[in-house]
UniProtKB/TrEMBL annotation:
The modification 4-aspartylphosphate is found at residue 56. GO terms for biological process: phosphorelay signal transduction system; regulation of DNA-templated transcription. Residues 147-212 form the HTH luxR-type domain. Keywords: DNA-binding, Phosphoprotein, Transcription, Transcription regulation. Pfam families: GerE (PF00196), Response_reg (PF00072). PANTHER family: TRANSCRIPTIONAL REGULATORY PROTEIN NARL-RELATED (PTHR43214:SF24), TWO-COMPONENT RESPONSE REGULATOR (PTHR43214). InterPro entries: CheY-like_superfamily, NreC/VraR/RcsB-like_REC, Sig_transdc_resp-reg_C-effctor, Sig_transdc_resp-reg_receiver, Tscrpt_reg_LuxR_C, WalR-like. Transmembrane segments: none annotated. This is DNA-binding response regulator. GO terms for molecular function: DNA binding. SUPFAM superfamilies: C-terminal effector domain of the bipartite response regulators, CheY-like. It comes from Saccharopolyspora rhizosphaerae.
């Protein structure tokens, strides 16, 4: 059997180098492409056709979660792992909703990542122990209250616009990056402010930081 072909996406070169050393040491795993941001990861997934994508959450242009949602649509056969420094329940749930097969902490990547890759390729989920606890607690809370996890307040496209606005891009730059009209960008921006009850870029930026779309 040929090795699992892996796309590795993280905006820190040193992190990618360390993770690649872990993976390339295994005879059944090989890194065939590296990306420095989420948009590049989506492009490489289309051109290089990896079997598995390992995505960091906090990346420029597109976050790992945004990239995972796009990849789930354009490459439904692609397995996805989230590799992150954030031991955070919100990110965990968003990762699973985005189509990820597993959620691995960078702090224990040397211990967990190889097994997570193999589990993903077997079609099995991989979660670190704390994540399993969070899922069980969430399930019990929902069952007790008879509630479902609420949907996100904004759409995927609005989230893309929000991230780029918070990163300081002008409406023209956003329109160029997303290949849409400036008028469409402005409409999405107005919808965002109305939905979130916000009035300017500063408030949108604070929301983006709280939501993990950009780093403070």
């Amino acid at each position: 059997m040929r090795p699992t072909r892996i796309l590795l996406a993280d905006d820190h070169v040193l992190v990618r180098r360390g993770v690649r050393l872990i993976l390339d040491n295994e005879p059944d795993l090989t890194v065939i492409a590296e990306a420095g941001d989420g948009a590049e990861a989506v492009d490489l997934a289309r051109s290089e056709m990896p079997d598995l994508a390992i995505l960091d959450i906090a990346m420029p242009r597109l976050t790992g979660l945004q990239a995972a949602r796009q990849l789930t649509r354009v490459r439904p056969d692609l397995r996805i792992l989230i590799l992150t420094m954030y031991d955070n329940e919100q990110y965990l749930f968003e990762s699973l909703k985005a189509g990820a097969s597993g959620y691995v902490l960078k702090s224990v990547a040397d211990r967990d990542l190889v097994e997570a890759c193999r589990a993903a390729m077997r079609g099995e989920p991989f979660l670190y122990p704390g994540a399993v606890t969070a899922l069980i607690r969430n399930f019990l809370e929902r069952a007790g209250q008879g509630e479902e996890v609420p949907d996100r307040a904004i759409t995927d496209r609005e989230e893309e616009i929000l991230k780029l606005v918070a990163e300081g891009h002008s409406s023209k730059e956003i329109a160029d990056l997303l290949v849409i009209s400036i008028k469409t960008v402005e409409r999405h921006r107005s919808n965002l402010m109305a939905k979130l009850g916000m009035k300017d870029r500063l408030e949108l930026t604070r929301y983006a930081i709280r939501s993990g779309l950009i780093e403070p």
